[in-house]
Predict the structure.
Amino acid sequence: MEIYVAKSAGFCFGVKRALNMAEKCAGESSADIYTLGPIIHNPQAVQKLEESRVYAKKGLSEIEKGTVIIRSHGAKLEEVTEAGEKGLKIVDATCPFVKKAQDLVSMLTDEGYSVIVVGEKDHPEVKGLISYGSSDIRVAESVAELEDMPRKKKIGVVAQTTVPMEKLEDIVAFCIHKAAEVKVFNTICNATSIRQEEARDLAGKVDLMIVVGGRNSANTRRLADICRSIQARTHHIEVASEIDPLWLSGAAKVGITGGASTPDWIIREVIDRISGLIPK
């Protein structure tokens, strides 16, 4: 049996940066440190940070003093303002690509555009993005969610950094017929596109795909969907122990990829687990 691992599997730049910032904070302070929500969408990595006294909290109501880290997905503008008003030390670990999208939403709003964010309404990154716009900002993951939108004078479009390019393209094509002027910013992270293309290519060459990452990770779920559309024998797991030996039956080639928030050590454990199950 041959095992193939996607070149870009594992941490992206923004996730590495956020974790490095959290670890630096922990090393410089003897007090507890908090993140506003899980710093990344990987339960195992979040649990590991707790060993360094970095604790994830659901909201600012649970943080009364000390340091709060804004996670890689960013935060709502009002949350950042409230943290400052509470006198908390703020460490902003927002991914620079997400930060750029936030700035663009703010700019488009100031310039009088009706802003559309292409992405998942309930994703923390998107919740943060829309807080930088006006009350009429809209979120859509598909054209169907915009069917009731009246014609606008000017439409501005940005995207969740991990959304598939096809979704952005579909919504932009729709908006062209809804306004005399459409300004589009492709805020999809290039690393996301590369990761998805690699997964698509690998899934077409193997007999079994293993996608590793948190089940709460949107980009990991998307990788699993992409792989499953090509290779029916695709499994999304969080840790190596979830691998069922029966999955390997009849598989001469196994492909492995991981989401942007999947630690390298978890991917290594998956490789070792599969290697250990190969008949000698």
